[in-house]
Every structure is written in structure tokens, then in C-alpha cells.
């Protein structure tokens, strides 16, 4: 779609995963503020916490270890890739969200390093933002305009939790923890796809040649 990079997950049939209920898309509606929250989030205790920041999962960390299925607390999870320019432009805005909503948790993971999660939650392109309650995905952010204000509106419309009014994107938010500068590297998925396609064409060509020799009359035609 517009404003997205893809694919985030490798092609082919999805791996067998526990069945999840469908993620509900956000319903853009200017009157949402007058409605009851769609997700009743249990706000975490922030006593003693001085720094509210985003946590980025590395390749060895499993998202499900950071989501408590027995709680009602909410976590906003960003699927991104460091080579996607739309992920990079979103980064400073997403970095500022933990200060705007200190009672919620914010995680980010490189979708190319967590392909099984991308497949499991239907993340076919990045950036992709999911709101979890416990370990259950409840809503997906669907707007292509990804700014601090639109993210604030999305969280408020879904949870009824208001953002702190004095939070803005700062210079530090452009620096991290989520990178706002594109990382150049080899697209291993694309390289593998090209090599696989080339190997298949070569195999099919050789296989066709072998079959041709088995057809009566083809061998004599070749000798002539």
C-alpha cells in the first residue's frame, strides 16, 4: 500500500501457528471521542519510573515473552525494517510516544528478523503497528499519515487514554532508540528469490531436454 515497504514476511504458505481472533482495523471517525473505549487497558503503575522509552527487541528475543496473556495491560508494537524509508520517517514520532503515554508499553521489532511473527499477525508490509491487550492483538493502525498526532488520536480512540499535552518530537527522538536513518544492506529475501527462480528455470530446461531424448523419433532427428 501507499507509504509501506514490503514484503515483511517471506513468501509461501504461513507456518502453523495458534489460531488468533482477527485484528480489528481502526475505524476512522471524528466522533470516536464521544464513544466508550474499544479496549479497556489496565494502566501500569509508573511509580519510581523516571525514563519512559521504547524497547527494541533483538533477534533472539520473542515478542510473546514481553506480553502477559493473563493481564489487561496494553502494548503498542511496531513492526519495522531498518531499510524501509517509511519506517525511518515514522521512527522519531514513535520514539516520543512512551513519554506521551507513560502508563502504556511500547515495543518495536525488526520484521525481517522475526518473520514468523510477521506471518502470524498478518504483517505483509512495514511499518505496521498493532495494539495488544495482554497477548491478544486488538487493533491495527491503518493510516498512511504516521505522525505523533495521528498516533495519539489512534491510541485515544481505542483506549480512551489521553496523551500528555506537553510532549513533542525532540532532537533526541530523531536519534533513537528507533533509527531514523536508513540502514543500507543486502536484501537477502530478494537475493534468495532470484537465486531460487534461476535454479528452477535451469532445472526445468535440463529436465525438458532429458524428456525430449526419451520421445521416439527425437533421437534420430538429432542425429540427422
Automatic annotation (TrEMBL):
- Does the entry feature the keyword Nucleotidyltransferase, yes or no? no
* Designated name of the protein: TXD15 protein
Q: Which GO terms describe its cellular component?
A: cilium
Q: Name one GO biological process term.
A: cilium assembly
Instruction: Spell out the residue ranges making up region: Disordered.
Output: 1-37
Transmembrane domains' residue ranges: 188-206
Task: For this UniProt record, give its keywords in alphabetical order, as a comma-separated list.
Answer: Membrane, Transmembrane, Transmembrane helix
Question: Where is this chain compositionally biased, Low complexity type?
Answer: 17-28
Q: Which residues form the Thioredoxin domain?
A: 30-160
Name a Pfam family for this protein: Thioredoxin
